[in-house]
């Protein structure tokens, strides 16, 4: 493992953590509204998978997607401004926290209806294969989403047509307040691949190095034409489902145990022990990240609101339209 | 008596013996469920996080502890199938109350509601019954974004076999839900996310109006304002402002969208000669179109001008707060529309 | 195996075959309209499974359900009259071929939207378990239906809550004109049970004895509280998907090969060889069945049409309704 | 050029170099698809049995042989996901044409159409485009039963972000489908099952009307009849009968249901002063309600009576043939409604 990559992981995950905590703070101050779903605890998943991807790969994510967007290269400013609902946001203030988009980063959302990421990714994968592209798609979803019919329908099609899709399950064991054993007959998500003649695997989603390695292997397979892959990352969310959820359905002990496996802390322990990163380097990253997050908030505050209610409903006005031919 | 069909004990944690004179709307729904579940073992509730969690808008709070997991069932995220599960259970003796967490997800359950629940009685030659209630919160709340701010009245009101309720006060929510649960037909209960935490007078002894009856919330001689859910409050506010100018608007709370209480509307317009439909949903093809069209047909020669509609902008709901507010009607828009209508004279004028 | 049971199977299957051929003839003569989906070739599935069921069990079937209805005890007259759209039909002429119902036979349909049988059966199963009933549900569907989201959603719930449901896949290898390898990544339907921690098994659906035995075992398990069971019956339809389909997408050789395994002919061969049924007995059954089918057609012809357009849309008129409490 | 994106060769099996002067509607759609696929490699078709089988109503016949399986894709029975697949592919350069075998199954695909396709451009701040066409046959055909006889106009017309077309002739079907495929917005094309095998004049050289424009199929001075799909024929038949009595009805074929061509309707009613909307779907909350309401608002002071509607009965479609026929409007019902309206005088009369 390259030292630069380790530092990249650490920086990505620290930015993720601090950005989300800053967003929570802004939410409490009333500058962000709506539903806000945060990622602390799950950082290794987005970072490990997306750093294993190529720039040409497409990403389709859920409402818990701020971190995916940033790792993919969307500036924190543009993400924070979107949470503020400002014109400087990556969706120009029309989308909000759950609907981040950026075509030039091949970041296709931001879907708030559970299970929508499957067909969207399948469509992108279909197009890639139809056009003999070497690119792939990374499709994110939670453990709760696997019981939506689209999971099943899409995985069947993806496998049937050998589409280049890495399906990444962010298994944080909860569907809001419902623990996985109470929503799924089979709690080992990766084993559902069996129903589609597909490959699947589980990895420790608190360990960014493990996620990265597993993703590289899976993506190599996916790109080889062998068909899609189901990668289950076991992880945990420290906070409630959204800012509205006090998470009183789970025990303090459970949270403590999982926090002990914190992806940032454990990467740092490893990196320090192996000499991949020095304390000075770490402090430098921390300073840089803090500045980036502060900058994102400052940018968002100053970004003007969007003003056009009607803009962008259609490509052209809803008039009678004399067609193209 | 099966263990699984647990009956309520004497916990009394939810339902006060003497209900308070004011309740919030969610509490009224909660009490209605509790009353029906205590009375009839066949009533059971299912949906995402309705059990242990107590419901995202608290409507099912406390019921899980009281009635057990078989009668208050937390489901996976499988809207199509758990709504269809309600249909199946209703066919064989159950009286399921399905909660779809928000109306936006009901798009995944329309096959169960429209193709199954609404048609089974007729298709079977009146041999099957589907006593199913499907409750769902909807509407524009606070910056939830386009996918979480919909109003899908238009998907349900056209469907023969369904009944569609839209209670807007705690008193109505309580009684209409109880009436719906006891009904033999499949009923969609549309609730509004911004009304759950509003308080209102509550009297469990007062006889409820008929399930589908509209109610005049404010009488007036000059103009009829027709609305439901949160738009009733918008109309009441507008009526206050208009009254300051001597214009007395009558505000009708429809309460039911299939059927609509056309007799009451007809009577009101017979007196006022003018009407405005105020709808939160987008204007084009919304439920308000039917109200305007039907009432025009019924009352044309009493009308001094066309029935106009004030409704949501023709856009998906934007996230930004100001744009979002601009996308739905407010009292100012209602006042302006009433004034414009009153100023408008006939063609030659 | 009891002799009487063998004869019952033979009679059921012969009635099924002749009834369907008679329906085809009536369709050609213009007395039946709409979509008509016939069962020849698949008789062993309905007969084997339903004869293994108890009278208290519920049945949920598709648009290809005439035979299920009759084996369940709905008189052929009432089924044929329904195909004719007459008041004497089991749905009083309102339902038609795809929508047979009879609550007193616990026959709950007759669903024409592919995939609807799953949630309906799950709902019935839920109610049975909630009320501690000893009854079970038999849920029918084709190989094409397993790619509908409801298959996945419903099987997960059924398994999670251990509902007493026998899921019977009538795998005739075609989804109208699309052969199973072109619609399913995993062509062995029973193996999909793995995704739900459920038991599954494949049986020769052209062999009524095998289907019967497998169904008895599966139903015993289902009733024991062990949860649902996925029984895949491999079978074949001799005709096109519906009367509108000439089935030109498959080869004459394929059809011939499958016809050689005809469930009626092979049961007769076995029964004769084992001395379970004599040629005289067989002729008697044939005569009885022919009379029954003729009688069904005659009844249907004489049955009056339904006359009330508005009857049965609602339990009571769509008026304002002063509710019950 | 990828093998998978097979371009048409010179097979010419489908498209005659000189199209015949008459075509059946399915042939017109087939030719439109062929033309667009030949011209643009990004266009591809998917749906159940559209390939090898050639489509249940033949619309895609021959295309599989011509363009290969990647551009003419047979799908599993997974309406929700293969429609969503269309959305995903449209986001990245594809121009998918999804066929939903019949509109009845579209209830399983509404999340993809309404929550995804219609909203993505707006939610992304106008940064994404969804050039998707979703075609679906619907309507009451011949005794297909309640679950296979629906008209779901009301589910689509209310949705901002969608365009909804309803071609009723081969010429319109050809051009409107081509226009739809070239459009940058998601478009729902509603087709009627009973029209596929009807022939009509076809001229590929004639310039098509604007995509959403209505067309006057028969001019008349006394009454405006507004319809689409098969109801246009019903209106033309009624107009013939009325003409025998000296009543000249103007018949407008709407062709598009979102938007509707209000200027044309306004102009027509400005001349005739009376209008009737004829809709196959159930009256209550159908698309006809919007037409009546919007046109009333626009033309109130020109109207000599209310805009009435003749529409389907408020029932799921019965299987029995006579009841089925009684459940949808026919020419006699239109004639009767026109006569009644003409006889009806003002309130005092
Ligand atoms: C179709 C649908 N149903 C319900 C919801 C409400 N909802 C939002 S997130 C969520 C839980 C999702 O859990 P999971 O897939 O595990 O993702 P996580 O939030 O844990 O990351 C639910 C039920 C929704 N958005 N969409
Ligand atoms: C949701 C839905 N999509 C499509 C159809 C059209 N359709 C009717 S039957 C059928 C094929 C079903 O195949 P399978 O499940 O194998 O059953 P089989 O007809 O072979 O018994 C299709 C596509 C439908 N009725 N419902
Ligand atoms: Mg989760
Ligand atoms: Mg099949």
Would you kindly provide a written description of the structure presented here, covering whatever features stand out?
The complex is a heterotetramer, with two copies of chain A (325 residues) and two copies of chain B (349 residues). By secondary structure, chain A is α/β, with parallel strands linked by helices. Chain A has one domain: Thiamin diphosphate (ThDP)-binding fold, Pyr/PP domains (Rossmann fold, 3-Layer(aba) Sandwich). Helix content of chain A is 43%, strand content 11%. Chain A has helices at 3-28, 43-51, 66-71, 76-84, 117-130, 149-160, 208-226, 252-259, 263-274, 279-302, and strands at 58-61, 107-110, 137-142, 165-171, 174-175, 178-179, 199-204, 229-234. Chain A is globular, with a radius of gyration of 20 Å. In chain A, 60% of the residues are buried. The model of chain A has no long low-confidence stretch (mean pLDDT 96). Chain B is α/β, with parallel strands linked by helices and 349 residues long. Chain B folds into two domains: 11-201, Rossmann fold (3-Layer(aba) Sandwich), CATH 3.40.50; 215-345, 3-Layer(aba) Sandwich (Rossmann fold), CATH 3.40.50.920. Chain B has helices at 25-39, 63-67, 79-91, 110-117, 120-123, 153-157, 170-182, 230-244, 262-272, 287-299, 321-326, 331-343; strands at 22-24, 43-47, 72-74, 95-99, 133-138, 163-165, 187-192, 199-201, 215-218, 223-227, 249-253, 256-258, 275-282, 308-312. In chain B, strands 3-2-4-5-7-6-12 form a seven-stranded mixed beta sheet, sandwiched between helices. A five-stranded mixed beta sheet of chain B has the order 9-11-10-13-14, with helices on both faces. Chain B has a two-stranded antiparallel sheet with strand order 1-8. The radius of gyration of chain B is 21 Å and the shape is globular. Residues 8-14 of chain B have low confidence and may be disordered. Classes of the chains: A alpha/beta (325), B alpha/beta (349). Chains in contact: A-B, A-C, A-D, B-C, B-D, C-D. At the A-D interface, β2, α5 and α6 of A face α3, α4, α5 and α7 of D. Bound molecules: thiamine diphosphate (2 copies) and magnesium ion (2 copies).
